[in-house]
Amino acid sequence: MSAAMTCHTCRNAIVIVLASLFGLSQCLRAQSTTAPTPPSEVLKAYLRIYLGSGRNSPPDTTTRATAVVVKLGDGKTEETIVYISGQDWCGSGGCTMLVLEPVGTSFKVLGRVTIVQLPIAVLPSTHNGYPDIGVGVGGGGIQPGYEAVLSFNGKKYPGNPSVSPARKSAHVRGRVLIAGTEGSVALYD
Domain residues of the chain, as ranges? Predict the structure, then answer.
């Protein structure tokens, strides 16, 4: 087993332990789960450019992406939820999540959310035509952890699940999109 694979396996174990500590595993078991799909080459190229813009340093070679495409209510429109992990994208409170809408051969950013703990779920409720998203919040001094609901305000999703307009939820019921990072791929090979 390679060192990268061992580290990846350790991260998955840490996610499960954190979910247990923060009380998120019970919710996770109660929901259906969607399997992540490997990001397309178009999405990977977009992420490399988007995540690298404004940086004066080389790319973080530990960056990994876990992605799920979600069909919206009309069955035609979709958004892509991407969980970005790696040294530059994670801290004690969690990692970065992007909510992207395909536009031709590119993407429009509907949300860049920091300190996201897994699991990430799409909820049955909607705001301004987009589904609410449930994420874990914990670590970084937040004890005990909880689940937050992120709603689209007509322009974007909230950037931080631990402050308003994101809101706490006693129990988020939805379809889990990303439960762990086992489906992640390296952005920089």
Answer: 3-186
SS3 37: strand
Distance (Å, whole) CA 72 – CA 62? 31
Could you tell me which residues are beta bridge partners of residue 120?
135, 178
Confidence (pTM): 0.80
DSSP 100: E
Q: What angle do CA 150, 11, 21 make, to 5 degrees?
A: 60
Q: Give ∠ CA 13-19-25 in degrees, rounded to 5.
A: 110
Q: What are phi and psi of 145, to 5 degrees?
A: -70, 165
Please report the pLDDT score of residue 170 as a whole number.
66
Query: Strand 94-103 relative to strand 78-85: parallel, antiparallel, unpaired?
Result: antiparallel
Report how far residue 71's alpha carbon sits from residue 187's, in angstroms, rounded to the nearest whole number. Answer: 24
Report mean pLDDT in 10-residue bins for the chain, 189 residues: 37 36 39 70 94 84 94 80 96 95 94 95 92 90 84 97 89 85 89
Residue 86 zone, left/alpha/beta (φ > 0; ψ -120 to 50; rest): left
Q: Which SS3 state, helix, strand or coil, does residue 57 take? A: coil
How distant is the alpha carbon of residue 118 from its chain centre?
A: 7
